[in-house]
């Protein structure tokens, strides 16, 4: 599974490392306690619901 790398600026570069400043990012994550298959399925469903609008504290998704 490929994800894009966040934008960054190199502040300092040495032989063994780079010091970077990253642009702000938004990350959505869930924690699900179950076996790997079940947790993956449940976690995907929760994140998909959030991405597609079920992401308001009052439980009412915005629709356009």
Task: Give me a quick take on this structure.
By secondary structure, the chain is an alpha+beta fold. It has a domain at 25-58. 25% of the residues lie in helices and 17% in strands.
> Strands of the largest sheet, in order across it?
1-2
Main sheet properties: 2 strands, antiparallel
Separation, N- and C-terminal Cα atoms: 30 Å
Let me know the average pLDDT.
Answer: 85
State the order of secondary-structure elements, H for helix, E for strand: EEH
Low-confidence stretches: none
The rounded Rg comes to 18 Å
Strand content: 15-25%
Shape, please?
elongated
DSSP strand count: 2
Share of helix, binned: 25-40%
What is the count of helical runs?
Answer: 1
- How does the helix and strand content classify structurally? alpha+beta
């Amino acid at each position: 599974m490929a994800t894009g790398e966040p934008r960054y600026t190199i502040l300092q570069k040495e032989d063994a490392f780079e010091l970077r400043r990253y642009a702000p990012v938004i990350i959505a994550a869930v924690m699900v306690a179950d076996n790997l298959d079940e947790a993956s399925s449940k976690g995907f469903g929760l994140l998909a619901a959030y991405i597609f609008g079920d992401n308001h504290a009052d439980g009412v998704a915005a629709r356009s």
